[in-house]
Amino acid sequence: MNADITHSLSARYYTDPAIFVAEMNGLLARSWQFAGHVSQVANLGDYFAFEIGGQNLFCIRGRDAVLRCFYNVCQHRAHELVKGAGNTRVVVCPYHAWSYELSGHLRAAPNANSVPGFERSKICLAEVRLEDFNGFIFVNLDADAPPMDECYPGVREELRAYVPQIDALAPLEWVEVHEHCNWKVSVENYSECYHCPINHKTFAEGVIKPETYDIQPLESGYVLRHTTECQGPEAMTYPVDLSANEHAGEYRSWYLWPMFSFQCYPGNVLNTYNWRADDVDHCTLWRGWFTEGGKASEVIRNLAVQDRQTTVEEDIHLVESVHRGLKSRGYRPGPLVVDPKGGVNSEHSIKVLQHWMREAVE
To answer: Rounded to two decimals, what is the model's pTM?
Structure first.
């Protein structure tokens, strides 16, 4: 066997429930995961609940204007504290009415004064690491995890250069997509464009120039950067203001291992991918589309619809077929097409990605 040939991962990495459990308890509990957007918690007392790695959490804006994240569990007898989103002056447990300040500290517990030695000051909700990344809220269950700028060096600044209006953005549209496949199958599909000219006609002919497409890892950290030029204005499927800034004629994407990607479509259109691992055989993909202040935009809404009906729908069929194939007794991991020159017809990005996948488990 040629030592330079890299073969794809064996099927067990995608189909073995034990590996999924190991990822949930390891990788997904030690990596930065997208929680929401700062526009969801703009005011004091605003909160929203969510789930990461099988853990129920919530973000809340304190009276000191600081944004915090807590495990969504009462320190009394483990009842969940909040559901959905809203605004509150005090967090009150629905079970026994223990109440907490927005800082997480216990405020009051009914009849606690009758308990000798009860020390209210020592009781506080369990806090989770949180970072504001250009208005996007990420959390990490590992208190000792490296900061995001160390994991994804330079991305914060690059993103601001491509989307100068990013501080003014808010979600316009969220598209929820359920896929019957392991989350890594979906992430791999996103991380190569070898299949794009064959399967994504609208994207390949109406947004990007496939012949200029490339995906490269950054020199350090866990980032795959997608770069390409856009089609000419006459071929684009939506109107593009090429004078918006110096990068308006480009497409760029920053995939942040393991579950998130920022995409800047030509014309400074920011959209995002966020994967959630449901179980070994299922994942959920959230596509986010953003405008200044979350204001209605016919162009962006039409683009979101076009994306869901073409690229996303096409990918659902691809990844679900791959997942079925990984369970076939006839499958043997084949060699990756790793072109030293890179480019759209190369799987060098998959080689890097699968190294991270193997590293996370082994």
So the answer is: 0.95
pLDDT one-digit tens code per residue, 228-246:
998 888 899 999 888 888 9
User: What CATH topology corresponds to 149-361?
Assistant: Naphthalene 1,2-dioxygenase Alpha Subunit; Chain A, domain 1 (3.90.380)
Q: What is the mean pLDDT of residues 91-109?
A: 98
Gap between the Cα atoms of 139 and 147, Å rounded: 10
- E strand segments, 185-230: 214-217, 223-229
Joined tokens for residue 178: 């359920």
Instruction: Please check whether residue 318 is in contact with residue 199, taking contact to mean a CB–CB distance below 8 angstroms.
Output: yes
Task: Name the residue ranges covered by the structural domains of the chain.
Answer: 33-140, 149-361
- Angle among Cα 105, 35, 311 to the nearest 5 degrees reads 170
Number of other CB atoms surrounding residue 180 within 10 Å: 14
What architecture does CATH give domain 33-140? 3-layer Sandwich (2.102)
User: Which strands, in side-by-side order, build the sheet including 46-52?
Assistant: 33-37, 136-140, 127-133, 67-71, 55-61, 46-52, 85-87
- pLDDT value of position 203: 93
Residue-wise pLDDT for 105-114, tens only, equals: 999 999 999 9
